[in-house]
Write a structure and sequence with these properties.
mainly alpha, globular, about 75% helix
Length: about 200
Amino acid sequence: MDELLEKSEALNSEFSRIFDYGPADDSKRVISSWIMCSVALEHSVSVRQLCLHGSYTSAICICRSQFEALTRATWLFYAASDTKIENTFEEASKLSNTAEQKSSNEDMIKAMKGKAPEQAVLMFKEFRYVQWKALNSYVHGGIHALQRHGAGYPEQLIIDIVKSSNGLLSMTAMMAAILTGNQVIAKDVSQIQRRHEECLPSLLI
């Protein structure tokens, strides 16, 4: 586990540099997607830190938030209507109790079909199909959290969670690279993935 976390930090270090370039322009669509990519990046850091300190239940909960942030980032760029983009900025400026997008991540994934890269949409669908119910159980204090927190976490489960988080991190890096407008950076993401394939899920390799 320690070796996996160490290798994951190296992966994160390479991907984090993409954010030093900044977005290609200051349009609301690009900026909103960029901000959500940054949120997803922060969540990936939190997952690893929580695992490092043995806070596995919380790490799994944050993994769901990481997925949701990345899903929204991708949807905002590829599939959200101009009206949705405008509403996002208008509501964000108010920060009231009602200022929240009502689209679920399932709706966002459906809306991305035919607009976002096909491989990305497939990975979103796969992640949601395989992990969503269990992640919800942890977030809402369901049977998964009760059983695992009480009986202990198998090491393989935590390895899978860290790798899943790294997979989401890789997708976040690709989305951020696209938002920079620099095609060379997007190519670099694939090279980074190949260099760190040991800490990524097989779906991305």
